[in-house]
């Protein structure tokens, strides 16, 4: 296992190469707290305080004050970190030979996670099985009246202004987000999308008739996948796209979920869902049956490509699980225990920023373990971490940080130095200006 003293200079070099923080003192502080998060694998203050690196011994009260003070730093907010996180994520993945094909867009996943009295809306760059958070917004829960839609639309608009114009991008999201303002924001930014719809959403068909999605399901074939051009909503501001309808009969269960235990768990989940729907929609006969359909509104003209894209939305769910309790409820970063103690939205946003940078580094380490440039002893050490090859990139990065193997400990500094060099050569980040600069008044000579 690397010590904080060994990991700290590597992270400082990485942050400097990625231009995460411009001020030297702020960069030192971020590298120090990032090292405590990666070494302790716990976002709780008590776990980070015990290994907080410092030039001299300090009282515990001063260490807690240092951990608390970082939550009030503006350079951990999404407005400051999103441009450099996007730049670093794209450069990191490209350096390892990953990313989509030249004719395919980069995929972003939009979702939200609730931690006590706070709701965090997150957009992440999808890698196999996980998502790298690059932008986020915070709302108190219950949501203030009239704040949900402006928050989500503003998050998407800010992300698009930070995204490189020459890099195609697509977004996938669940059925909580569709709205005409949401799709118009994506369309104005040139972003493709694949978003799930609810039965209550209305679409305008090619013949001009406006129908709710639930009525279209009554006449659909559950054994086929259909595609038809529609407009979301009605009126002059309706958004054009394609409607994909797929029944549960045509959806394929992943190979690792076809065993007796997995099928029994699916059956139990289906029964609980049907009981919940029967209780929620008393007096209706179509509520539970309509949950057996998958309806997507997309810009993709290929229905199967849209289904494949939407299937990658679950990557962000794994990232949320890692940030909270982990795969077993104990081996995550326990973010769900720390965020409820935050008093303001700024503190929640700063802690989310620290989590986003830490996730980028840890998943980046996991991706590097499978790269072609990884030495053979490192790949051999990785094979001893599990009997199968189903470890997530986040968990592989954690195993690398905690590994006592000398080959892995010697590989991490070389790999992070290689990534730092790649980040130095990456294109500059696009920093949007929300407001035009004010003109300086001129003073006329007398």
User: Mind summarizing the main beta sheet?
Assistant: 10 strands, mixed
Strand order, sheet with most strands: 3-2-1-4-5-10-9-8-6-7
Rg estimate, integer Å? 24 Å
Q: What is the percent of helical residues?
A: 40-55%
Give a brief outline of the structure.
This protein is α+β, with helices and mostly antiparallel strands and 446 residues long. Helices cover 46% and strands 16% of the residues.
What does this 3D model show about the protein?
With 446 residues, the chain is α+β, with helices and mostly antiparallel strands. It has 17 helices and ten strands. It has a ten-stranded mixed beta sheet with strand order 3-2-1-4-5-10-9-8-6-7, with helices on both faces. A hairpin with a 5-residue loop joins strand 6 and strand 7 (210-212). Helix 1 (4-18) packs across helix 2, helix 1 (4-18) runs parallel beside helix 17 and helix 2 packs across helix 14 (345-369). The longest helix has 25 residues, at 345-369. It is globular. The protein starts with a helix and ends in a 22-residue tail after the last helix.
Itemize the secondary structure elements and their pairings:
Layout: H1 4-18, H2 24-40, H3 45-49, H4 60-69, H5 78-95, E1 106-115, E2 118-127, E3 130-140, H6 148-162, E4 169-173, H7 180-188, E5 192-196, E6 202-204, E7 210-212, H8 213-218, E8 225-232, E9 239-247, H9 260-280, H10 287-290, E10 293-298, H11 303-311, H12 315-323, H13 335-338, H14 345-369, H15 376-383, H16 393-402, H17 406-424
Parallel strand pairs: 1-4, 4-5
Antiparallel strand pairs: 1-2, 2-3, 5-10, 6-7, 6-8, 8-9, 9-10
């Amino acid at each position: 296992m690397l010590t904080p003293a060994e990991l700290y200079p590597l992270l400082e070099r990485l942050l400097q190469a990625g231009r995460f923080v411009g001020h030297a003192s702020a960069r030192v502080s971020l590298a120090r707290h990032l090292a405590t998060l990666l070494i302790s694998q716990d976002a709780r203050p008590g776990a980070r305080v015990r290994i907080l690196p410092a030039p001299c011994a300090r009282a515990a009260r001063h260490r807690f004050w240092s951990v608390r003070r970082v939550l009030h730093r503006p350079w951990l907010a999404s407005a400051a970190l999103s441009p450099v996180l996007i730049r670093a994520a794209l450069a990191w993945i490209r350096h390892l030979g990953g990313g989509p094909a030249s004719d395919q867009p980069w995929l972003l996943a939009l979702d939200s996670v609730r931690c006590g009295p706070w709701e965090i809306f997150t957009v992440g760059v999808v890698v196999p099985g996980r998502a790298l958070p690059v932008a986020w917004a915070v709302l108190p829960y219950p949501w203030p009246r009239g704040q949900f839609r402006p928050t989500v639309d503003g998050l998407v608009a800010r992300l698009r202004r930070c995204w490189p114009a020459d890099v195609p991008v697509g977004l996938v999201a669940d059925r909580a987000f569709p709205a005409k303002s949401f799709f118009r924001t994506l369309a104005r930014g040139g972003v493709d999308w694949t978003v799930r719809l609810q039965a209550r959403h209305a679409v305008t068909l090619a013949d001009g008739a406006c129908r709710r999605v639930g009525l279209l399901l009554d006449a659909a074939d559950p054994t086929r996948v259909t595609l038809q051009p529609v407009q979301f909503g009605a009126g002059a501001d309706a958004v054009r796209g394609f409607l994909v309808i797929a029944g549960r009969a045509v959806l394929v269960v992943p190979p690792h979920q076809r065993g007796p235990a997995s099928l029994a768990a699916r059956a139990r989940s289906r029964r609980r869902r049907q009981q919940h729907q029967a209780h929620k929609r008393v007096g209706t006969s179509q509520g539970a049956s309509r949950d057996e359909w998958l309806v997507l509104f997309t810009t993709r003209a290929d229905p199967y490509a849209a289904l494949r894209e939407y299937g990658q939305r679950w990557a962000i769910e794994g990232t949320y699980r890692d940030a909270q309790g982990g795969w077993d409820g104990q081996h995550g970063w326990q973010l769900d225990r720390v965020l409820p103690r935050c008093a303001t939205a700024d503190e929640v946003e700063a802690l989310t920023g620290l989590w986003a940078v830490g996730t980028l580094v840890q998943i980046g380490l996991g991706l590097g373990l499978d790269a072609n440039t990884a030495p053979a002893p490192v790949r051999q050490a990785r094979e001893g971490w599990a009997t199968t090859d189903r470890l997530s990139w986040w968990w592989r990065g954690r195993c690398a940080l905690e590994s006592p193997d000398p080959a892995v400990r010697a590989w991490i500094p070389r790999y992070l130095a290689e990534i730092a060099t790649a980040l130095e050569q990456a294109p500059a980040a696009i920093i949007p200006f929300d407001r035009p600069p004010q003109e300086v008044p001129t003073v006329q000579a007398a």
